[in-house]
Amino acid sequence: QVQLKESGPGLVQPSRTLSLTCTVSGFSLTSYGVSWVRQPPGKGLEWIAAIWSGGSTDYNSALKSRLSISRDTSKSQVLLKMNSLQTEDTAMYFCARRATTGYFDYWGQGVMVTVSS
Amino acid sequence: EIVLTQSPTTTAASPGEKVTITCLASSSVSNMYWYQQKSGASPKLLIYSTSSLASGVPDRFSGSGSGTSYSLTINTMEAEDAATYYCQQWSSNPDTFGAGTKLELK
Fold this sequence. Notes:
The complex is a heterodimer of chains A (about 120) and B (about 110).
Chain A: E1 3-7, E2 11-12, E3 18-25, E4 33-39, E5 46-51, E6 57-59, E7 67-72, E8 77-82, E9 91-98, E10 104-107, E11 111-115
Parallel strand pairs in A: 2-11
Antiparallel strand pairs in A: 1-3, 3-8, 4-5, 4-9, 5-6, 7-8, 9-10, 9-11
Chain B: E1 4-7, E2 10-13, E3 19-25, E4 33-37, E5 44-48, E6 52-53, E7 61-66, E8 69-74, E9 83-89, E10 96-97, E11 101-105
Parallel strand pairs in B: 2-11
Antiparallel strand pairs in B: 1-3, 3-8, 4-5, 4-9, 5-6, 7-8, 9-10, 9-11
C-alpha cells in the first residue's frame, strides 16, 4: 500500500539549515510527484515545494531562495533543505503524493519541527 | 498567487443537519480539491476535480462549483464529520489552500 513517512530533527536552532526526508513505499517516484506542505501550530496549510515524476522542481516563491528539493530514486526518498531558519518556520511538515490531476491523494503523518535556541 | 477565501471560518451543526462550506478564489480556477483534517492527524482527500468523491469517502459529502466559486456540502452531519476542512487549487502555481473551516458538532 502507498505510504509516506517524514523524518528529521525535532529541534533546529535559528539561522541553521533544516534537512527533512520523505521515504515512500508502494509507488515509484518516477511515476508520481511529491510535495512538501507545512502547517504552523493552530494554523492552515502552506505548500512549500514539489518534485515531479520527471525530476523537475517547483518552489513557493515566498520561500524559494531558502529551499532545495531533490530525490534519491534508489532509496525512494525525497529530500527537502531549508536554510536560514526562523521561529516562524516552526511547523508540522508533511510530505504528500501528488496525483497526475493535481490533488494530494496520500499524506505522511508529518514531522514537527521547532525552531528555537 | 490565487487566494482562496473560505467561509464560514467556524460553524457547528447538529446530527442530521446539512452543512455547506464555501471557497471563493481570487481568480478563476479550473478545479477545486477538498481535504478533511481531524485534530492531530494529517489531511485526508475528500473531493477531487471539484465534484469527484475520493475513495472510501461517504456519499453524504459532495462538491460543486466553477470559476471562482466552489462549495463542499455534507448532506447529513454525523459526529465523525467534526473536523477542519480545507479547499486547495492547482490551476495556478503556487498551489494554495484556503484558511480552513472548523466544523463542530452541536
